Amino acid sequence: MSDPRLTDLLQAVPALRVKTDPADLEHYGRDWTRRWTPAPLAIALPGSIEEVQAVVRWACQHRVAIVPSGGRTGLSGGAVAANGELVLSLERMNRVLDFNAVDRTLTVQPGIALEAVHNAAGEQGLEYPVDFAARGSCSIGGNIATNAGGIRVIRYGNTREWIAGMKVVTGTGELLDLNRGLVKNSSGYDLRHLMIASEGTLGIVVEATLRLTDPPPPSNVMLLALPSFEVLMQVFSAFRERLQLEAFEFFTDRALHHVLAHGAQKPFEETHPYYVVTEFASGDEVQEAAAMAAFETCMDNGWVSDGVISQSDAQAAQLWRLREGITESLARYKPYKNDVSVRISAMPAFLEETQKLLGEAYPHFDVVWFGHIGDGNLHINVLKPDGLDDAEFVSQCEQVTKLLAESLKRHEGSISAEHGIGLVKKGYLESTRSVAEIEMMRGIKRVLDPEGLMNPGKLFDA
């Protein structure tokens, strides 16, 4: 360990684990974007809050930037360390610390995987309802840092709604204990919510108290084939009016093509241009009849061409795989991703405008759409052709993103629905936030991170 700063770090924090092997630097220095060459100084793996605080104080002393790291499943470059930063990985801090049956809360360390949280809540007969496909590898700390949403936002909301309290180490090494699990707390600014979605730029989440809820009622899953893009919102309205929706997810024929090539089972004999997978409460004959009534209404109006309803948990999982397997099936193509949102009421006009924009802008690219239509969130994946240079591909896509950002501004939407801003989208932040808001964000960062060492360059330039 030739760098004298690292020698000082181990003297300051003797029990700290530090990795400097090239393979580790590459592995921990990037997220799923793969657009930047990782070049961290080293990887620090603390095992306690006290060690996190000591690392931050060392960083302040030596003017070393810190990139907090969880599961690194992000898609916006928020966990990239490409400029000699110290990656502070929280993967060793991955335990359940406490369950409170009266408050119905689960206190966990930030490196615990979302799936492990689900299992821990289930062991108590309760549910932590935030869920998405990366549940096995993403961490709670990362979920909080981006206010992650997922497939059940339509019923349960984003991560923000389920954080009862948290402990955060600021950019000076100070430990903040925020909200402490209170249900009601009107004693000034709620700094807990300020930390959520801050992408590690204000501090490092070192503990979180999560709200739990009752398990959902029995549910069923239906896959719908749609004849055209224009009927999507009519189908959503028909199902939302009659059913208690858990999820309502949309994807295109191109998305299905890639998931099937990745090993999923083909749902229909014919290929249709658009699909919806929806999950809804279905615990009795009344709810089952309502589901069939919604389906028949859509068929009678020509909004749905075909459909299948799950008859078992295994079949429900097969249907969900068609939606949840999309991101993994596209990974080898190095897709350029947009993750945008508008109000649900603005969705029809925005979808129509966006479909036209993408059709004109990407005539020769494979564009894969999918999204959480029930909460106004759309994911756009542009796949890189094999013969096209990476930089040229990104350059072409950036030109279209500028147009997309302008459209979002007209529709009062967001350039980032649930993946954060990171490095990828910070040039488009002004399409979502005013100049005054961004300057206030900078001021807040200067208070909590006066040396500017917490994940610098992410979200905005200081």
From TrEMBL:
<dbReference type="InterPro" id="IPR051264">
    <property type="entry name" value="FAD-oxidored/transferase_4"/>
</dbReference>
<comment type="similarity">
    <text>Belongs to the FAD-binding oxidoreductase/transferase type 4 family.</text>
</comment>
<dbReference type="InterPro" id="IPR004113">
    <property type="entry name" value="FAD-bd_oxidored_4_C"/>
</dbReference>
<keyword id="KW-0560">Oxidoreductase</keyword>
<dbReference type="InterPro" id="IPR016169">
    <property type="entry name" value="FAD-bd_PCMH_sub2"/>
</dbReference>
<protein>
    <submittedName>
        <fullName>FAD/FMN-containing dehydrogenase</fullName>
    </submittedName>
</protein>
<dbReference type="Pfam" id="PF02913">
    <property type="entry name" value="FAD-oxidase_C"/>
</dbReference>
<keyword id="KW-0285">Flavoprotein</keyword>
<dbReference type="InterPro" id="IPR036318">
    <property type="entry name" value="FAD-bd_PCMH-like_sf"/>
</dbReference>
<dbReference type="InterPro" id="IPR016171">
    <property type="entry name" value="Vanillyl_alc_oxidase_C-sub2"/>
</dbReference>
<keyword id="KW-0274">FAD</keyword>
<dbReference type="InterPro" id="IPR016164">
    <property type="entry name" value="FAD-linked_Oxase-like_C"/>
</dbReference>
<dbReference type="InterPro" id="IPR016166">
    <property type="entry name" value="FAD-bd_PCMH"/>
</dbReference>
<dbReference type="InterPro" id="IPR006094">
    <property type="entry name" value="Oxid_FAD_bind_N"/>
</dbReference>
<dbReference type="Pfam" id="PF01565">
    <property type="entry name" value="FAD_binding_4"/>
</dbReference>
<feature type="domain" description="FAD-binding PCMH-type">
    <location>
        <begin position="36"/>
        <end position="215"/>
    </location>
</feature>
